[in-house]
Amino acid sequence: MNLMSGNIVASQRDILGLPVCDLGWAEAFAFAEEVATMPFGQSVIAFINAGNANLMIRDPEYRAVLERQIVLPDGHGVDIASMLFHGRKFPANLTGTDFVPALLTYLARPMRVAMIGAQQTTLMQAAENFRRHAPWHDFLPISDGFFDRAASDAVMERVREANADILLVAMGSPAQEKWIDRHVGPGHARLVLSVGNLFDVVADAPHAAPGGIRRLRLEWLYRLVKAPSRLSRADFSFLYHVLRYKFSGTGEAHDRNDTAKAGSL
């Protein structure tokens, strides 16, 4: 499987039946810049990690939503799955808490960045910290994440009126990906990203893992220390799904099909 946009071509790896892009940092930045600066169209980026992969296994609707979006790899668990299925790790750990701030620094052209999600105080602080981080962009806190979902169209009308280039949605998985799939469409920004707890991290919320921990791909270990029973259950569940998929033969079939398709392009 391959993802193409203009001059960017990214192969995709099968992770538990979901196509996940294997872009490096430079290619991911170039892809995001290209779609964000197009005069029309829209691309939606999501991130897959061990936790939301477990959710995807149990929730067919969530899987279908992710299959309609561009999925980037996030974290140590997905690297382990890639090693088991394909014999190599992903070129980069493109977790949203690192990728999005770095992307905003990379984008030299001023952008209007709409923000939805988190608590109101966290949202406002994250917007202010983003302004310090990349002052050439215009950060627009549209709504916290606790609005009445019946008002979703009204919230998105505010995004349209803001003439946003980029939209960041932070509601947690799978809610944010499903909400984007239902309510975000053409005219609501050309690049849309579901970003999990990014606003908490940017606002320096106390539960966020330190930057050095995230850069070393050890956020899973940090969370294990903070909440060992919750994380160990999630990790063991993910590993079970990975091994079951691997030894069922399904993973090998997908890998052969992906190789054949890539060779034909």
UniProtKB/TrEMBL annotation:
CDD domains attached here? Glyco_transf_WecG_TagA
User: From which domain of life does this come?
Assistant: Bacteria
Do you know which InterPro entries this protein is assigned to?
Answer: WecG_TagA_CpsF
Q: Which UniProt keywords apply?
A: Glycosyltransferase, Transferase
One Pfam family named in its UniProt record: Glyco_tran_WecG
Which ranges form a coiled coil? none
Q: Identify this protein by name.
A: WecB/TagA/CpsF family glycosyltransferase
Species of origin reads: Shinella lacus
